[in-house]
Design goal:
Structural class: alpha/beta
Largest sheet: 8 strands, mixed
Radius of gyration: 17 Å
Number of helices: 12
Order of helices and strands: HEHEHHEEHHEHEHEHEHHH
Length: 264
C-alpha cells in the first residue's frame, strides 16, 4: 500500500452477503448510526431495493442523484452525499435507475473501478464509508469489493446460515488477487441471535469453529425495537437508545473500529 493510500481518511467497508434475509441492510444502517456517534460516516446504498435509504428516512420521491450516478460518474462526486437526520452521518441513496446499472456496466470502461474512483474523491470528508451491497455477487457487489478495504459479513443465526459463506470468502480472495490487493474480511457478525434458542448457540459455535477470530465477539440480538425502528425510517439508536439492539450496535461499532485500528 502506498503512502498516499495509507494517508486516506476513510476506511471503506462493504457490508455484504449474497444470501438475503440475514440482516445485511439492518446492520449497515445501525452500524453507520453507531459509528456516527464518534466519527464522520458515509453510508452508500448500493442495493437497488433501496432499503438503506428508506431505513434512514429518505423516501423514493426524495431520491435524485445517487449510486447510479456514482457508478456512471455523471456528476461530481462531491454532489452525491446528502445529510441525514443524524449528525455526522451522510448517505448516497439508491436512485431509481440503479436497477439497470448492472446491465449498463457490462460494456463500460473500467467497469469494476467506477465506485472506487468516486469514493476516493470523497474519502477525505469521512472517517468511515459503509457500502450496503445487494444480495448477489454481480457487478454492483464487485464494484463495492474493489472499492473497499474490508468486508463485513452479517451471518444470521439460523439453519443453513453457513451455506454460501465459503463462496463469498472465495469471491473476496479472487477480487483481492485480481483487483484489490488490500481487500480482507473485516469480520463476520452474528445477527438475529436468540439466547433462548439452542440453534443460535449451535450456529455461533459452528461459525467460530470454522472462521475463528474472523467472527466478531459482538452478537446482534433479535430485538423488536430494531424492526420497529426500520418501519419508522430511522436507526434503532434514534428510536430507542436504551434497547438491547441499540447497545449491541454501539458495541459492534467499537469492535469494528478497534479491529480497523489494529489492522485486522
Amino acid at each position: 500500500m502506498s503512502n498516499k493510500e495509507k494517508s486516506r481518511a476513510a476506511r471503506i467497508i462493504a457490508v455484504t452477503n449474497q444470501k438475503g434475509g440475514v440482516g445485511k441492510t439492518t446492520t449497515a444502517i445501525n452500524l453507520a448510526a453507531a459509528l456516527a456517534v464518534k466519527q464522520r460516516v458515509l453510508l452508500v446504498d448500493l442495493d437497488p431495493q433501496g432499503n438503506a435509504s428508506t431505513g434512514l428516512g429518505v423516501g423514493y420521491d426524495q431520491r435524485q442523484t445517487g449510486t447510479y450516478a456514482a457508478l456512471m460518474q455523471e456528476v461530481p462526486a462531491g454532489d452525491l452525499p446528502r445529510r441525514t437526520e443524524l449528525d455526522n452521518l451522510d448517505i448516497i441513496t439508491a436512485d431509481n435507475e440503479l436497477a439497470g446499472a448492472e446491465i449498463e456496466l457490462i460494456a463500460g470502461d473500467r467497469r469494476e473501478y467506477r465506485l472506487r474512483e468516486t469514493l476516493r474523491a470523497l474519502d477525505s470528508r469521512y472517517d468511515v464509508i459503509l457500502i450496503d451491497c445487494p444480495p448477489s455477487l454481480g457487478l454492483l457487489t464487485l464494484n463495492a469489493l474493489v472499492a473497499a478495504d474490508g468486508v463485513l459479513v452479517p451471518l444470521q443465526c439460523e439453519f443453513f446460515a453457513l451455506e454460501g459463506i465459503s463462496q463469498l470468502v472465495k469471491t473476496v480472495e479472487r477480487v483481492r488477487r485480481a483487483f484489490n490487493a488490500d481487500l480482507h474480511i473485516a469480520g463476520i457478525v452474528l445477527t438475529m441471535y436468540d439466547r433462548r434458542n439452542n440453534l443460535s448457540e449451535l450456529v455461533a459455535a459452528d461459525a467460530r469453529s470454522f472462521f475463528g477470530e474472523q467472527v466478531l465477539e459482538t452478537l446482534i440480538p433479535r430485538n423488536i425495537r430494531i424492526s420497529e425502528a426500520q418501519s419508522h425510517g430511522c436507526s434503532v439508536l434514534q428510536y430507542d437508545r436504551r434497547s438491547s439492539g441499540a447497545a449491541a450496535y454501539l458495541a459492534l461499532a467499537d469492535e469494528v473500529t478497534a479491529r480497523s485500528e489494529k489492522g485486522a
